[in-house]
Amino acid sequence: MSEAVADLGYSKSELMIAASARQLGGVSNCFVGVGLPNIVCNLAQRTVAPALQLVYESGAYGARPERLPLSIGDPTLATGSTAVTSMFELFAFYLQAGLIDVAFLGGAQIDRHGNLNTTVIGDYQHPEVRLPGSGGACEIAIHARQILVIMRQATRSFVERLDFRTSPGHSGDPAHDAARGWHGSGPTSVVTDLATYTFDDATGEMVMRTTHPGVTVDDVRANMGWDPMVAADLSETPPPSGEELRLIREELDPAGVYAR
Amino acid sequence: MNASKVATMQDAVRELVRDGDTVAIEGFTHLICFAAGHEIIRQRRRDLTLARMTPDVVYDQMIGAGVASKLIFSWMGNPGVGNLHAVRRRIEQADPGPLEIEEYSHFGMVCRYMAGAANLPFFPIRSYYESDIPKVNPKIVPMTSPYDETDEVYVVPPLRPDVAIVHAQRADAAGDTQIWGLMGCQKEVAFAAHRVIVVVEEVVDEAVIRRDPNRTVIPGVVVDAVVEEPFACHPSFAQGYYDRDNRFYLDWDRIAKEQETLDAWLDEWVYGLANHREYVEKLGDAHWESLRPGQALSGEVDYGRYS
User: Fold this and answer.
1) What is the CATH number of the domain that holds A216?
2) Burial class, A149, CB count within 10 angstroms (exposed 0-12 / middle 13-18 / buried 19+)
3) Mutation for B interface: A38, A57, A58, most B CBs within 10 A
4) Any idea which residues of A carry the catalytic annotation?
5) Which of A239, B112, B210, B217 gives a 20 to 30 Å CA spacing to B184?
6) pLDDT at A7 over 90
7) Does the model's ipTM exceed the 0.85 cut?
């Protein structure tokens, strides 16, 4: 599988970046994380969303990073930004009040309804692996109007049952979800190293939409802990274009820290 | 002219940080006062409750050195790198002893400081709905709006640390403090805490502060000590003064993996040095030169003169 992708002249990460960036067309602002989401947002700003404002939970609004930020609090995010806010203002006035269009989340575990675990593997009181915890993820999941999830896919991360629900996704009952009154209500899409997914309106369940070039539905099934819904019009993920690859390799991540 | 609160780091920590205290060294990636953490380690404080939104390398160092028995936080990790090995050893294996934890989300932690700073009994937020976090932290409580019985929020309690340690670019001798760049919750934690140590790159004349009052984040009235300690954030950064030393964060992953290598690092870089000035000298001029940013001056504004 990985060999097949390598033969196509781009990495799995580059495909994930390009597939995610295309979902930001027309979006006006985006809550950015470190790593892949940061490159995704910067690529979108140079392609499908030129007016995209990059928002970081550290308080930088409308950031214009001159170098690839290695953390969400990099000094390059403050210099030249539209605004630097206190963290209270960012979470209260921007996020909680509903101004954030899109946010990226990931996690150690996700379930079929897009609930996410970033807290613990095993029992909370006696953890096998203590993970970082929520950070801003819990409130981001509730308040951002769209949530895009980027994760590598494996049976240990795409699980039937989470060890801990840090950030709420869809409940499985659309009537309940509609009555929540949140700005968002569960992730809107998931991009992995194997496939892309959206969520079913009727059940709130993850639906496989595309498989990446060289990847079969059975490959995807073998890397998740439940039998997934598959779209009737399942197609192949469009590969990154020459221009997308040029931007990633020459401008956004020339050292290949995240994209290779 | 107000009375000077200028002190050395040794004296400020000796007088204001006591065994058993709740101590918050804040700063969100930016302005994290590592030098204060090192001085607390050097003075062998014990049984501290450490509060911080993002326990990162400075708390891994302090917890690895045995100063703390409890951690209050919302995200723990080595930003952009991975785990905090010393903290995880304490939580996962009680090695060398257990560490009590009390966890929130970022917004919850910010609002705990807000409630503390504003003298409120709790702070309401729209978070934690359908999350397991309140199940493991009984201090996060659902509450129905008194004005709309269909509107439910969660409330978090005030956090009033015994001591807050806040780094900033500059302050005057009375503690009037100015910050630029990412703000974290330096302001909220300073107003919330009972005792406040401000550590700065430069102590400046009161007139410098008065020329740009909108940039003053913390007034001297809540400050107990002002410590002038250049480069005190390393490997964190001070906007406009020095860059984040990303190499050190990567190196820490290896250093902290075993308690023995962590202890050896503490011996060389904390216990083996008398103060932060020796740490700065030990790193050497070439290292500091490599962290010096280019220049990006703000424009000036005219406050106007009304005499």
Assistant:
1) 3.40.1080.10
2) buried
3) A58
4) 57
5) B210
6) no
7) yes
